[in-house]
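Q: How do we represent a protein-ligand complex in a form that can be generated token by token?
A: Start from the inputs.
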Amino acid sequence: MDYADRATIAGPATVFGQGGIGIVRLSGDRALDLLQRLFRPRRHLSAFESHRFYYGAIVDARGDLIDEAMAVYMRGPHSYTREDVVEFHCHGGAVVGRRVLDLLLEGGARLAHPGEFTLRAFLNGRIDLSQAEGVMEVIGAQSLLGHKIAVRHLQGALRERCDALRELLRDALALVEAWIDFPEEDLDPATQDGIGVLLRQADEQVRALLESFRTGRVLRDGLGVLILGRPNVGKSSLLNALLGSARAIVTDLPGTTRDTIEEQLDLDGLLVRLIDTAGLRESADLVEQEGVRRSREKIAEADLVLLVVDGHCGVRPEDLAILDDCGDKSVLLVVNKCDLGNCELPISLAHLPRVEISASTGEGLGSLRRAIREMFVDPDPDPVRETLMVTEVRHQDCFSRCSQVLARAQAALERRESLEFLALELRLALEVLGEVTGETAPEDIINRIFSRFCIGK
Ligand code: GDP
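Then emit the structure tokens for the protein with guanosine-5'-diphosphate bound:
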């Protein structure tokens, strides 16, 4: 993308189709001129005032009516892009919006690239790169909590945290640089301590951000839950009970749920993706083998494994073999069929968090839902309120590199290595933090981020 291109851009701000209204958006120097040419306000005006909605008609060059519509002019810099922005709120439908867009293109506007309105907001300094990513996150949010996190990113919470971190590192760098000017003198202990404190503070904050990623990602993208267990322990029944509807086929014959079924569930705002599989079992049957292969693959994908055992018949070696396959995955032991009375569980399962349920009667299902949620999310009813969470792999990567640089810098300080080296590391950490907010992000990364946007955003 050519960042110097200041052409007036036009794009559909809504999906043109069956909706009640369709919005066409314009940004750039020519926006007001195009508004004046295309739009006839119902009441005579001497000029369009900024941020006011006008009712009127959209007409083509011959004066033919295209639509009755509302129009708004937002004078820059008080607009989404900081440029002059105009929006036409037309009737929905496949034709109207397209027609208005064509008129704007004929009038000299250029069709906007995907994400170009937001790109301009970024290039014009209204938002930073993490906020632009927040825009995408808000649009793509699939659960209440995911949306809450996204809104905080949109408001600039990540930028604020990066600014605070950079403040600490700049203070440390200033102290280091002051001593570089006196090469014959050793760093005095008080200054060394001062730099150490600043680096530790920054390091702690970066670590907290890194740790938030596990929960943050789950809250945004949903928790992948894999239901595993040997045949007939009640996996399909559990899936149905959780979903509250009979979507998977329940049967008395072992091994009938051959294919994988994925369903979504909302656990008080947390999106859960439930995966029922053919189960991990040894079998000569080819299709069953395929099921086994798939389940094993799914273990890696899952954030949590629900290991279902039959509490009435008791635990068998096959159950323990399945647990072995789970490696270091989070496992929640679901002891099913508690309506029939439970046997003693072997000591080898005692370390697992456990919930007793009956998929048939529904007993214990509430506890199971709570247990799943609390393994990943703070029991606080609003776990997102206070904490800033990292959800983007790109941000996680930046913070991870920043943390490595800070570790090297701290080691260098302790070993009293050259101050030049320390200064270099601090500048590197500052640069890495600038990648999150965009100041030092390479152009190809910026392009990649905006190319994921839809057109008109
Ligand atoms: P899967 O092979 O692990 O998917 O097991 P199913 O869900 O098909 O259940 C196997 C059998 O156990 C069926 O006859 C279910 O009705 C029965 N079953 C499942 N859960 C319970 C339960 O909690 N209590 C009782 N009594 N029977 C259950």
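The chain has three domains: 9-128, 131-212+390-438, 222-374. Residues 66 and 252 are 63 Å apart (CA to CA).
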